[in-house]
Design goal:
Chain lengths: ~220, ~375
């Protein structure tokens, strides 16, 4: 996955070096917020993103964040370039119809430790359903200390049956247990079983099963 | 020797540091290193590693002690705890002595608010050759989220038969509008290389709230053993259950501990190393560890614009910025003593946000997922379904 992102970044850097005279218009939100040199380079990254069909809003936001926090121009350009690469990988995993919110959440999950294959599996298990919350919960779980592979297994275990509300409740429960002293992996295991039991027992669940959460018990 | 055994047993039965009532002996220092599995009331089971040094000075009528501990929980969180204690006894008059003692303890978990207690106690002792008893009262302060003044009345008795010491106590404790009565018993047997101590108790009456750590009616028991491996090293084993102690802000727990005790000064005096209940208090107060700000962000119910609430104590100003503000700082309006609010439009998806309190650093608020950025410092991420 890293190699893939690196290749994307390399291509975009090459395009960015061509300068704004060749590609695209200025992003008005960046005018006056970024030094001219940095703004032109970010505009170049935005042009590449547009050409690839990627959402530009999160890229602009990231540039503005860097600007307001006083980051050096080179750091800002590096950050938006990296984000664009992550968005591209997320889009390839989630599909052409993925929304900007889904791609942003997918990019965040990639940064947390998920792989392109993990995101692809999430898409496969939740056909036609929104992926934003599921991907965000994956990133959240890793952020609170759940090992990435365990977090991925849990999110995928819930993917076929769980709705966004159940993902949110699951994440909240795990966070609360961790805050109360449980190990992240143990908390995740307990809450995963609770959610899957709830889903299994829910009226209208014709399959009566989920994607094997019991066979995906996390490490204690 | 008789009295040391007695008070060692009493201290253990009281589930607090061993030197709360140190009465005899000499200078002694130990370091305990142990591993525990503990299930605090209202919590999931957690493993922990504990390092606990203790220092104690005993003269004929005066005892001083200090004990600390550093605990690393399975989750990676840490807690530091320390207690100091002292006791002075009047010279005996016909078997009667008066004890004045005090203790102070404090604990701190991660960047959470600390808590502690300061207690003063007086006891009237009547000691015979092989048996004795006392009546006493304790009061002071218990500090944490709020401060309260506890008051405790206790009566106890002890007897010594060769290597065996038996102790029983009955105590009534009041803390604010809450109260409870405890009946405790302890037996301690000290052999040449092995010391075993068992404790059992019951709480027949308790008046308290329903929260975690509140006093509740129930019974408990635990057992500990020290086995000498060398002159200076002992194997320490213990397990069982102990009750909550609202005065010292100790949670009840069930535990198993295995450890080693290193006698730095060639005398052992403190009990088997366990995760002290004081640590549980910190665990209970534990907040989301990914946060780096004392402010907590709460997203209001559905609506557009949507209310963002920031809860922070004692702030004079609160500002917020995020991708939904084009990273322009916006001031929040104070709507309560510790609550600040702003209304913004939030589209579904992940949003990044920072908060600044009183013009300080921009930090990720609690209640969000912390994400390190390339720009120095963390950002909080919230997801709008």
């Amino acid at each position: 996955m890293r190699a893939r992102v690196g290749l994307v970044l390399l291509c975009m850097s090459a395009l960015g070096a061509l300068g704004p005279s060749i590609v695209g218009a200025q992003e008005p939100r960046l005018v006056g917020r970024l030094p001219d040199v940095a703004r032109m380079q970010v505009d170049s990254v935005l042009d590449v993103a547009r050409a690839a069909g990627l959402p530009t809003e999160p890229i602009v936001d990231r540039a503005l964040e860097g600007a307001v926090k006083g980051a050096p121009p080179a750091v800002i350009v590096s950050a938006v370039t990296r984000l664009t690469g992550e968005l591209r990988v997320a889009r390839e995993a989630f599909g052409e119809t993925a929304s900007s919110a889904e791609l942003t959440a997918g990019a965040s999950a990639l940064r947390a430790g998920a792989t392109s294959a993990d995101l692809g599996a999430l898409r496969t298990l939740r056909p036609g359903r929104p992926l934003t919350v599921a991907a965000a919960v994956l990133a959240d779980l890793v952020a609170v200390g759940v090992p990435a592979d365990t977090a991925v297994a849990a999110v995928l275990a819930l993917a076929r049956e769980a709705g966004d509300a159940e993902y949110v409740a699951f994440r909240r429960s795990v966070g609360r247990d961790i805050a109360l002293g449980a190990s992240p992996a143990a908390a995740l295991g307990v809450r995963l079983r609770a959610v899957t039991d709830l889903i299994t027992e829910a009226p209208g669940n014709e399959t009566g099963t989920t994607t094997g959460p019991r066979s995906r018990k996390p490490k204690p | 020797m008789r009295r040391r055994r007695l008070h060692a047993a009493v201290a253990a039965a009281a589930w607090i540091v061993s030197f709360e009532s140190p009465l005899v002996g000499q200078t002694a220092g130990t370091v305990d290193i142990g591993a525990s599995v503990v299930e605090y009331d209202g919590f999931l089971v957690s493993g922990a590693a504990v390092v606990s040094p203790a220092l104690r000075f005993d003269a004929e009528n005066l005892s001083l002690g200090a004990q600390g501990s550093w605990t690393l929980f399975e989750s990676g969180n840490q807690i530091v705890q320390a207690t100091v204690a002292g006791a002075w006894l009047t010279p005996p008059r016909g078997g009667w002595r008066v004890e004045f003692s005090g203790s102070a303890g404090a604990a701190k978990y991660a960047d959470e608010r600390g808590y502690g207690h300061v207690l003063a106690r007086t006891r009237l002792h009547m000691s015979g050759e092989r048996a004795g008893g006392w009546v006493g009262a304790t009061t002071g302060g218990s500090f944490g989220d709020s401060s309260q003044v506890p008051f405790e009345l206790a009566v106890g008795g002890w007897t010594v038969q060769d290597r065996l010491t038996l102790v029983g106590t009955l105590s009534a404790t009041w803390l604010g509008t809450d109260g409870h009565v405890d009946l405790l018993g302890a037996a301690r047997w000290a052999g040449e290389r092995v010391e075993v101590e068992g404790r059992a108790g019951m709480r027949p009456w308790a008046e308290s709230g329903d929260g975690v750590g509140e006093a509740r009616v129930g019974a408990w028991a635990d057992l500990s053993a020290l086995v000498s491996l060398t002159d200076r090293i002992k194997l320490a084993l213990s397990g069982g259950a102990y009750p909550s102690d609202p005065v010292r802000q100790v949670l009840g727990a069930t535990y198993v501990t295995v450890g080693l005790r290193f006698d730095i000064f060639r005398r052992q005096v403190s009990p088997v190393p366990t995760i002290t209940g004081a640590m549980a208090r910190a665990a209970r107060e534990r907040a989301v560890t990914e946060s780096s700000s004392r402010a907590r962000l709460e997203i209001g119910p559905w609506g557009d614009p949507r209310a963002l609430l920031v809860h922070v104590a004692g702030a004079r100003s609160v500002e917020l910025m995020g991708d939904f503000t084009d990273w322009q700082p916006l001031g929040l309006a104070q709507t309560g003593p510790d609550t600040w609010e702003i209304r913004v439009s939030l589209t579904p998806g992940a949003h990044r946000v920072n908060i600044r309190v009183d013009g300080g650093r921009w930090l990720a608020p609690r209640g969000t997922r912390l994400e390190q950025t390339e720009f120095g410092g963390p950002v909080g991420v919230v997801v709008i379904p």
